[in-house]
Amino acid sequence: MIMNGGNADAGETDDVALLGRRAGLLSRRSFLVGSAVGVGTLGLAGCVTSDGMSLAEAAKVYGPVPDEKFPIPAVDVSKVDPKYYRRTVRYDTKEAPGTIIVDPGNYYVYRIEDDGNATRYGANVGRDGFRWSGDAYVGRKGEWATWTPPKEMIRRQPEAAKYAGGMPGGLDNPLGARTLYLYQNGAYTLYTIYASLDAESIGTGITSGCVGLLTQDMMHLYSRTPVKTKVVVLPA
Question: DSSP letters along 116-176, please?
Answer without folding.
Answer: TEEEEEEEEEEPTTS---EEEEEEEEEES-EEE--HHHHHH-GGGGGGTT-BPSSTTSTT-
